[in-house]
Amino acid sequence: MVTGDGGSASRARSLAADDDLAGRLALAVGRLNRRMRSSTGGLSHGQLSALSTIVRGGPIRPSEISAIEIVAAPTITRVIADLEARGLVTREPDPDDGRSFFAVATDAGVELLMRARSDRARSVAAILGELDEAQVESIRAAVAALESAAHVAATPGDRPDRSH
Protein backbone atom coordinates (compact mmCIF):
# COMPACT_ATOMS: atom_id res chain seq x y z
CA MET A 1 0.00 0.00 0.00
CA VAL A 2 1.46 3.33 -1.04
CA THR A 3 0.63 6.42 0.89
CA GLY A 4 1.86 9.85 0.07
CA ASP A 5 0.85 13.27 1.02
CA GLY A 6 -1.55 13.52 -1.90
CA GLY A 7 -4.39 13.48 0.62
CA SER A 8 -2.92 16.26 2.72
CA ALA A 9 -2.07 18.33 -0.36
CA SER A 10 -5.64 17.89 -1.58
CA ARG A 11 -6.95 18.88 1.85
CA ALA A 12 -4.72 21.98 1.83
CA ARG A 13 -6.08 23.00 -1.59
CA SER A 14 -9.63 22.45 -0.31
CA LEU A 15 -9.01 24.59 2.79
CA ALA A 16 -7.53 27.37 0.63
CA ALA A 17 -10.57 27.20 -1.64
CA ASP A 18 -12.85 27.36 1.44
CA ASP A 19 -10.94 30.44 2.67
CA ASP A 20 -11.45 32.06 -0.73
CA LEU A 21 -15.15 31.16 -0.66
CA ALA A 22 -15.50 32.48 2.89
CA GLY A 23 -13.84 35.77 2.00
CA ARG A 24 -15.88 36.23 -1.16
CA LEU A 25 -19.13 35.41 0.66
CA ALA A 26 -18.33 37.80 3.52
CA LEU A 27 -17.59 40.60 1.06
CA ALA A 28 -20.73 39.94 -1.00
CA VAL A 29 -23.00 39.74 2.06
CA GLY A 30 -21.52 42.93 3.49
CA ARG A 31 -22.04 44.84 0.26
CA LEU A 32 -25.58 43.53 -0.16
CA ASN A 33 -26.38 44.61 3.41
CA ARG A 34 -25.08 48.10 2.67
CA ARG A 35 -27.24 48.29 -0.47
CA MET A 36 -30.29 47.36 1.63
CA ARG A 37 -29.40 49.61 4.61
CA SER A 38 -32.11 52.17 3.84
CA SER A 39 -34.74 49.40 3.99
CA THR A 40 -34.69 48.95 7.77
CA GLY A 41 -37.44 51.32 8.86
CA GLY A 42 -34.92 53.55 10.61
CA LEU A 43 -33.61 50.72 12.80
CA SER A 44 -30.17 49.16 12.80
CA HIS A 45 -29.97 45.66 11.35
CA GLY A 46 -29.57 44.31 14.91
CA GLN A 47 -32.64 46.17 16.16
CA LEU A 48 -34.68 45.03 13.17
CA SER A 49 -33.58 41.42 13.66
CA ALA A 50 -34.42 41.52 17.37
CA LEU A 51 -37.82 43.07 16.61
CA SER A 52 -38.45 40.28 14.11
CA THR A 53 -37.59 37.70 16.77
CA ILE A 54 -39.96 39.39 19.24
CA VAL A 55 -42.79 39.56 16.69
CA ARG A 56 -42.28 35.94 15.67
CA GLY A 57 -41.70 34.49 19.15
CA GLY A 58 -43.31 36.92 21.54
CA PRO A 59 -44.02 37.22 24.33
CA ILE A 60 -40.39 36.20 24.75
CA ARG A 61 -37.75 36.48 27.46
CA PRO A 62 -34.64 38.56 26.76
CA SER A 63 -32.46 35.48 27.34
CA GLU A 64 -34.33 33.68 24.54
CA ILE A 65 -33.88 36.67 22.22
CA SER A 66 -30.18 36.73 23.08
CA ALA A 67 -29.82 33.04 22.23
CA ILE A 68 -31.70 33.38 18.93
CA GLU A 69 -29.84 36.53 17.89
CA ILE A 70 -26.50 35.11 19.09
CA VAL A 71 -25.58 38.23 21.05
CA ALA A 72 -24.73 38.90 24.69
CA ALA A 73 -27.50 39.54 27.20
CA PRO A 74 -26.44 43.17 27.88
CA THR A 75 -26.68 43.88 24.14
CA ILE A 76 -30.24 42.55 24.00
CA THR A 77 -31.14 44.55 27.11
CA ARG A 78 -30.02 47.74 25.31
CA VAL A 79 -31.81 46.76 22.10
CA ILE A 80 -35.06 46.07 23.95
CA ALA A 81 -34.75 49.42 25.77
CA ASP A 82 -34.23 51.20 22.42
CA LEU A 83 -37.21 49.41 20.85
CA GLU A 84 -39.32 50.19 23.90
CA ALA A 85 -38.35 53.88 23.77
CA ARG A 86 -39.53 53.94 20.15
CA GLY A 87 -42.87 52.39 21.14
CA LEU A 88 -42.17 49.20 19.18
CA VAL A 89 -42.14 46.77 22.11
CA THR A 90 -43.47 46.68 25.66
CA ARG A 91 -42.41 44.70 28.70
CA GLU A 92 -44.76 42.30 30.48
CA PRO A 93 -43.80 40.97 33.91
CA ASP A 94 -42.81 37.30 34.07
CA PRO A 95 -45.29 35.74 36.50
CA ASP A 96 -42.79 32.97 37.33
CA ASP A 97 -39.82 35.27 37.96
CA GLY A 98 -40.37 38.74 39.38
CA ARG A 99 -36.87 39.81 38.25
CA SER A 100 -37.57 39.01 34.60
CA PHE A 101 -39.99 40.14 31.90
CA PHE A 102 -41.29 39.23 28.49
CA ALA A 103 -40.78 41.46 25.45
CA VAL A 104 -43.94 41.90 23.38
CA ALA A 105 -44.25 43.72 20.07
CA THR A 106 -46.71 46.60 19.88
CA ASP A 107 -48.95 47.15 16.88
CA ALA A 108 -46.53 49.89 15.80
CA GLY A 109 -43.65 47.39 16.06
CA VAL A 110 -45.44 44.80 13.94
CA GLU A 111 -46.36 47.46 11.37
CA LEU A 112 -42.80 48.80 11.17
CA LEU A 113 -41.43 45.26 10.78
CA MET A 114 -43.87 44.42 7.99
CA ARG A 115 -43.06 47.68 6.20
CA ALA A 116 -39.29 47.12 6.58
CA ARG A 117 -39.60 43.53 5.31
CA SER A 118 -41.57 44.73 2.30
CA ASP A 119 -39.02 47.48 1.61
CA ARG A 120 -36.14 45.01 1.95
CA ALA A 121 -37.87 42.51 -0.34
CA ARG A 122 -38.31 45.23 -2.98
CA SER A 123 -34.66 46.20 -2.55
CA VAL A 124 -33.51 42.60 -3.00
CA ALA A 125 -35.86 42.15 -5.98
CA ALA A 126 -34.24 45.18 -7.63
CA ILE A 127 -30.79 43.69 -6.98
CA LEU A 128 -31.91 40.33 -8.42
CA GLY A 129 -33.31 42.21 -11.42
CA GLU A 130 -29.75 43.28 -12.26
CA LEU A 131 -28.73 39.63 -12.71
CA ASP A 132 -29.30 37.19 -15.54
CA GLU A 133 -31.62 34.20 -15.06
CA ALA A 134 -28.78 31.71 -14.53
CA GLN A 135 -27.38 33.86 -11.70
CA VAL A 136 -30.83 34.14 -10.10
CA GLU A 137 -31.24 30.36 -10.30
CA SER A 138 -27.85 29.88 -8.63
CA ILE A 139 -28.98 32.14 -5.79
CA ARG A 140 -32.32 30.33 -5.56
CA ALA A 141 -30.44 27.03 -5.22
CA ALA A 142 -28.20 28.46 -2.48
CA VAL A 143 -30.88 30.11 -0.32
CA ALA A 144 -31.65 27.03 1.81
CA ALA A 145 -27.96 26.55 2.61
CA LEU A 146 -27.59 30.26 3.43
CA GLU A 147 -30.63 30.10 5.73
CA SER A 148 -29.10 27.11 7.47
CA ALA A 149 -25.73 28.85 7.83
CA ALA A 150 -27.49 31.92 9.26
CA HIS A 151 -29.63 29.75 11.58
CA VAL A 152 -32.77 31.18 10.02
CA ALA A 153 -35.84 29.00 10.10
CA ALA A 154 -37.62 29.32 6.80
CA THR A 155 -41.34 29.91 6.95
CA PRO A 156 -43.61 27.67 4.87
CA GLY A 157 -44.16 30.40 2.28
CA ASP A 158 -40.42 30.88 1.78
CA ARG A 159 -39.85 27.69 -0.15
CA PRO A 160 -41.72 26.08 -3.01
CA ASP A 161 -43.80 23.05 -2.12
CA ARG A 162 -41.75 20.02 -3.16
CA SER A 163 -44.30 17.42 -2.09
CA HIS A 164 -45.63 16.82 -5.59
Description of the structure:
This protein is mainly α and 164 residues long. It is built from 6 helices and 2 strands. The chain has a two-stranded antiparallel sheet. A hairpin with a 2-residue loop joins strand 1 and strand 2. Helix 2 crosses helix 4. The chain is globular. The termini are far apart.
Decide which structural class fits the backbone: mainly alpha
Kindly provide the radius of gyration, computed on alpha-carbon positions and rounded to a whole number of angstroms: 21 Å
Largest sheet composition: 2 strands, antiparallel
Morphology call = globular
SSE order in H/E notation? HHHHEEHH
- Spatial sequence of strands, sheet with the most strands: 1-2
Helix content: 55-70%
- Uncertain segments: 155-164
Number of strand segments: 2
| Residues in β-strands, percent | 5-15%
Gap from first CA to last CA: 49 Å
Q: Helix count?
A: 6
Averaged pLDDT: 83
Descriptors for this entry?
two-stranded antiparallel ribbon, 6 helices, 164 residues, globular, disordered C terminus, single chain, mainly alpha
